[in-house]
Amino acid sequence: MGNFDAFEIKMTAAGMGDAAIRAFRRNYEALLRNETGLIPEETISPAQGLPSFEDISNAEADESLLSQAVVIKLNGGLGTGMGLQGPKSLLSVREGVNFLDLMARQILDLRKTSGTNVRLLLMNSFNTSEGTLAHLTHYQSQGLSEASEVELMQNQIPKIDAATFAPAEWPADPGLEWCPPGHGDLYPALVGSGWLDRLLAEGVKYAFVSNSDNLGAILDPAILTYFAKSGSPFLMEVTRRTAADRKGGHLAVRKSDGRLLLREVAQCPDEDVDAFQDIERHQYFNTNSLWLRLDLLKEQLAADSGVLPLPMIRNNKTVDPRDKKSTPVVQLEVAMGAAIECFEGAAALDVPRSRFAPVKTTSDLLALRSDAYEVLEDGQVRLAAEREGVPPNIILSDDYKLVDQLDPLGVPGLIGCRSLKITGPVHFEEGVVIEGDVEIHNTTPERLIVRSGTYKDQTIGL
Questions:
Q1: CA distance 140 to 90
Q2: Which keywords fit this entry according to its UniProt record (predicted)?
Q3: What is the CATH number of the domain that holds 389?
C-alpha cells in the first residue's frame, strides 16, 4: 500500500515544483508510518515569562530596517463558512473599503514614512488569485497590481484515497481531487516560486507573515527592530489565552531539548485535554503572525534537505465535501507556526490582543463595521479608545450566519455596548445605539424593525 510515484506524476503534470513534491512526500511517508503527531503533557513544560510588546515598544525603532522587510499575507481563503464565493479579503469593512484595501494602505503608508519600497506579497491560492489581482488594478500607479511583483502562489496537493492510499479520483469534478496543504506551505512555496532567492538578492532579510483576515496584524517597526537586534531566526507573536481560546493551540517548551513548540488540540492525547484547556497553565496561543529571517530560513532549509520537518496534521474528509457519501479521503496539512520547533534560538513575543483581530464570523464583521472600531487612513484598524481594549461580545442567531444575511440587519452604534444578542430577523433603523448588555428577540419569520433610539441593559421582545 502506498506508492508515491503516482502522486509525483500527478503533481508534476499539474505544474507543482520540486519543493512542493518533496514536502508532500515527507508528509505522505509520515502517514504511511501511521504517525500520530501526539504531544503528551508529560513531555512539555508551559511557556512562561516571555518578553512582552510593552517591554520593547518604548525602545527607539530603526526605520531604516523597513527597506529590508517584506509583508507576506496569507490570502488563500474564500470565506466559504460566511457564504462567500470569492476571496475573503474582498469583504467590505466600510463603504468602498475591504481587507485588501487596508493591506494596500498599510504598505503605501510604510513606504511613505520610510522612503523605501517596502514589499507586499500575497500568498494566493488557485481560488483567490484572479479575484485578488482584479481588485489590485486599482493600485496600478502605486506598483501593487502586477502578479510578478505581489503574488506568491500557494501549492495544491492531491487528496489521498483513504482505502487505497492512492491519489483520489473524482471524474465528475477533477478539481475536487486537490486540496490546499495548509499555511505551512509557505516555506516550500517561497522556495519553489523563486521568491526566497529573489528577495534575498534584493536585500530583503526580514519577513512579517500574517493572515489576511487578522486586521490587527500590521508591520510594527518596534517589533521589526527588536527582531533584527535579537538575531533570532524565527519569532512568533503570541497573546494571552482567554476562556474563549481554551480549544485553540498553545505554545509550550519541549523538555528533551528546551525548544519552543506549538501544540494543537489534534496533537493532544485524550487524557491530557484538561491540561491542554487550562489557560492558567498554558497561557499563550499563536496569533499566526510570524517574523522570519530569510537568510537563516535558507540555511535551515539546506540543513533539512530542502524541507522543514513540520508535524503532519491528518484530516479525514470526503472527496466532495458537500457529499458525505462520496469517497472517503485523507487530506494532509502542515501549519506554518509549527516551524518554531525547527529553529535553534526561535523566540516568542507576548503581544496585546489588539494585534489579533481576526474576522472569522459575521459577529466579528458586525462589530468591525460599527463605531466600536476605527479605520484609519493608514490602513490600521483599532478599537475605539473608549472600549479600553475590549471588543463588544456579539452573539447572532443562525439567521445571520452568511454575509448576505447580515446586510439587511444594518449597523447599530456599538461603542458603548458590552454584549448584544440577536435572535430572529430584525433590522436596525438609522440611529440605533446599543449600550451595556442588550438582547433582541423576534420569534416570527417576518423581519421586524428596531426603531431609532438608545437601548441600554434591556431585553427587547419584538
A1: 17
A2: Nucleotidyltransferase, Transferase
A3: 2.160.10.10
Segment (H or E) for 262: strand 260-263
pLDDT (0 to 100) of residue 1: 61
Assess contact for 404 and 362: CB atoms under 8 A.
no
Considering 355, 388, 423, which residue would you say is the last residue of a domain?
A: 355
**Each residue's pLDDT tens digit, 238-251:** 999 988 888 888 99
CB burial class (10 A; 0-12, 13-18, 19+) of residue 143?
middle
| CATH code at position 97 | 3.90.550.10
Q: What residues are paired with 323 via a beta bridge? A: none
Average pLDDT, stretch 354-372?
A: 93
Binding residues for UTP: 88, 154, 182, 213, 360
Binding site: what residues are annotated? Answer: 88, 154, 182-183, 213, 360
Residue 365 pLDDT > 80, yes or no? yes
Give the pLDDT confidence of 152-180 residue by residue, as tens digits: 999 999 999 999 999 999 999 999 999 99
Helix (H, G, I), strand (E, B) or coil at 156: coil
User: Beta 119-124 vs 151-153: how paired, if at all?
Assistant: parallel
Q: How many domains are there within the chain?
A: 2
Tens digits of per-residue pLDDT, 68-87? 999 999 999 988 888 888 89
Same domain, 134 and 268: yes
Instruction: Tell me the C-alpha distance between 83 and 255, whole Å.
Output: 44
Q: Which residue has the higher pLDDT, 245 or 12?
A: 12
Compute the distance between CA of residue 13 and CA of residue 21 in angstroms, rounded to an integer: 12
Percent of the chain's residues with pLDDT above 90: 87
Confidence of residue 58 (pLDDT cuts 50, 70, 90): confident
334/382 same-domain check: no
Which helix (H) or strand (E) segment holds residue 186: the answer is helix 186-192
In this structure, the answer to whether residues 245 and 304 fall within a common structural domain is: yes
Residues 144 and 81 in one domain: yes
Partners of 349 in the β-ladder: 237
**Has residue 441 got a pLDDT over 80?**
yes
CA distance 274 to 277: 5
Average pLDDT over residues 440-450: 95
Task: Select from 355, 373, 389 the last residue of a domain.
Answer: 355
Is 253 in the same domain as 130? yes
Q: Which domain range does residue 119 map to? A: 5-355
Residue 223 corresponds to which cell in the numbers above?
A: 517589533
Within 13 Å of residue 415, how many CA atoms lie on the same side as its CB? 10
pTM for the model:
0.94
Mark whether 340 and 431 lie in a shared domain. Answer: no
Residues 341 and 371 placed together within one structural domain of the fold:
no
- 208 with 75, same domain: the answer is yes
Helix (H) or strand (E) holding 27: helix 18-32
